[in-house]
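Meet our chain:
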Amino acid sequence: MASEADEASRNQRDALLALAPWQSDGTFGGLASWRWRDTRLVTIPEHHLYRDHFDHDLEDAFGQSVELVVYLSKHVSESRRPSLAVHPIGNPRGAEFGGQPETLVPSAPRWMTAALRGLRREARGLSYDVTFEATHHGPFLTAPTFYIEQGSTETEWTDLAASRAIARVLLALEPVDAPIAIGLGGGHYVPRHTDLALIRRIAFGHLLAAYALEGPSSKVIDQAVERTDGATLAYIHRKSLSKPEVRTYEEQLEAHGLRIVREADLPADREDES
């Protein structure tokens, strides 16, 4: 899904259209839509953060269930570092940027992890960090969803090489074959989880940064497990949390039947070995 209100989103959409033989598929909300294989590409006029229930709108418009929603988006950060990022969505706390407060959206761990690995591959030669971000912001949907972004300033939003890299990733996207996990701890860019997803056989769904766990956290952890379908593992960035916090989270995750893993427990990813 692209947004006319987002320059990077428009550039990513146009790159997708240029790199594959999309067919006209009528309109969605008065704007042109396209179809390629089993994928639809649609655009909305407003910013995507505040368009709740977009998956239901798609189902109503096209009469088909939605397996996965991918948002094309710009990335903004205070560091202004050139970055290509993917992340799950939802609000561990308040809903300052769309969605519903204290409500997570179903994640898409195998698809999203594949996108992260694809960005690493396609961004070689470009001066961009490739990273996960922690779960944050709206909108609210009930279908599995992730964002793919380029940023962090207007310079990067208009970088067509970065837009084409994202388009190549999405056109080749296939879900990774890896056990599914949720991640806890770390900063907003969850560096340990990003590193593991790139070199180990693991697929992350919801990623709850340390700041999202401050205060009462049991509800958001329960939701992260519930809305990471198929999760069997959990990885905690221990150095970012106190020992009592780690033990509390371990007990809660184990009560859900998840196995707590460390890096040494995870085999190297075969793709990385090649």
Residues 70 and 146 are 5 Å apart (CA to CA). The chain has one domain: 2-273.
